[in-house]
Automatic annotation (TrEMBL):
Top-level division of the source organism's lineage: Eukaryota
Classification of source organism: Eukaryota, Metazoa, Chordata, Craniata, Vertebrata
Protein name (record): C-type lectin domain-containing protein
First and last residue of the signal peptide: 1-17
InterPro entries registered for this protein in UniProt: C-type_lectin-like (IPR001304), C-type_lectin-like/link_sf (IPR016186), C-type_lectin/snaclec_domain (IPR050111), C-type_lectin_CS (IPR018378), CTDL_fold (IPR016187)
Record keywords: Disulfide bond, Signal
Keyword field contains Iron-sulfur: no
Organism: Hucho hucho (huchen)
Limits of the C-type lectin domain: 52-191
Amino acid sequence: MATLTLLLLLSAAFTLGDFALGGDLMTESIAHDLVKFAADRRNPCPRGWFQFNSRCFMFVKTARTWPKAERHCQLLGEKLTPVHNTVKYLGANLASVHNYEESQFLQAVVLIATGSFPLTWIGGFYAVQEKVEKDRLWFWSDGSKFDHEIWAEGEPNNNNGAREPCIQMNFGAENGWNDVSCGKRYSSVCSIRTCLIPHTIN
């Protein structure tokens, strides 16, 4: 039911006009509604994290390089303890994105935290420099399949021939993704996987 309500909220927002990712139509009110209806009390997230399906997401304001942001997410995950007889946390990384609804949810999380759409690290990267731009293989730092992408117009492009192996969100007029040097410093979104602890009858 929560997923259906979330989809209805997104649909309502899209019918208001041309909707660019994270554009002017994503308001703080819509963002709060999205995260509220995505939450599932049976599978709670730690305080400060927002739930979407079986993962929890958190905006981290401190600007870091991509590698340091990834390590910070991992450290946050290592500090979490399971909720007694309810849920386990299975490790944190920079956020991966697997569908349009997840990308909108991440933008809602960022908007709630900042009041805007700042450039923000997510977990996408490529490890090997290819000679042909279109042949680059992208990965997610959490090891999940790279099965969805929302590049801004003209991206990814290794701008001016520079190697740009890491992904930031909220770029350009569409607030899409951009490939950029991993050494630049931005805020980030972490995600953590959750697992319900099955209840047994003795």
